[in-house]
Amino acid sequence: MIQAMLQRIDRLSEWAAKGITLAVFAMVVTIAYDVILRYVFRAPTVWQYDTSYMLGGSVIILGSAYVHLKRRHVRVDLIYNRFPPRVRLILDVVFTLLFFFPLLTGLIIVSAGYAIHSYQVKEFSEVGFWRPLMWPFRSVIPVGLALLWLQGLANFIRDMQRLVKGTEL
Questions:
Q1: Higher-scoring residue by pLDDT: 140, 74
Q2: How far apart are CA 69 and CA 91, in angstroms?
Q3: What is the pTM of this model?
Q4: Dihedral pair phi/psi, residue 124, rounded to 5°
């Protein structure tokens, strides 16, 4: 049962990663389109700047769960890799409990509050000329953080299994 839950979380992270490949493609296409319009036809778009930072931010936040699944987040490897595997595992478990879960829980709560507020007041972007509504972009942030939290939970359960029983889940 636990194994099935962990596999579902992993698939969710992989699904999000596949979805963001479309966002990366869309970002490249819109930037190329704007560059052509700007420098060939001297007629830039009013929406490309907002679109690119929203897509770029979405790519980063939604991709974080997949990066955590593959355990590719940045670490201070100079120090971390000097420890034996069991000590690294203990460090992973301790830091996950002390920092990862509390920090992400707080970020999810705060970012969800911002997304809800953005929806309620019909907030729009004041950065570019297009001025799109901000709540769809702001909603991606707590969703991506929640995916990362879930993947962190899956990794934590696996780490605990390895630490306590010495076996993989």
A1: 140
A2: 17
A3: 0.93
A4: -130, 160
